[in-house]
Design a protein that fits this description.
mainly alpha
Length: about 120
């Protein structure tokens, strides 16, 4: 979990930040309302509150991930995975994977918009 940077996310609770983004479930402002707080400060406040609430449950998250890893993979498989990820090719894979997803998502935004538009049109008929 350390090699794939999941442990960092579990330790910090940073995976919860998606709930702190403006417009997310922790923002009470409705569309068109005047936002009086700065977005960056608002994000920070919400992120810190999330992490405070998460701290009480962190051990449960850790155990859930460890239990699933041990259910999904044998010790021998985990050894092979860790061996691969510890090598330069494994690190390149991890570094390249997020870039590949980011670039692909950026390069297909228009395509996704077309798909959503077509689907909305189909559903409205």
């Amino acid at each position: 979990m350390t090699l794939i940077r999941l442990q960092d996310q579990l330790d910090s609770g940073s995976f919860l930040d998606r709930y702190a983004v403006p417009g997310g479930p922790l923002w009470k402002a409705k569309s068109g309302e005047n936002l009086t707080e700065l977005l960056g400060e608002g994000f920070r406040i919400r992120s810190e509150a999330l992490k405070s609430a998460y701290a009480k449950r962190r051990v449960i998250y850790q155990q859930a991930y460890e239990d699933h890893l041990n259910w999904e993979f044998t010790e021998a498989e985990l050894g092979e995975i860790v061996g691969f990820l510890s090598k330069p090719a494994g690190q390149h894979y991890l570094d390249g994977r997020w870039r590949m997803e980011a670039y692909t998502n950026t390069n297909t935004e228009d395509l996704e918009a077309e798909i959503v538009s077509e689907t909305a049109s189909t559903l409205s008929k």
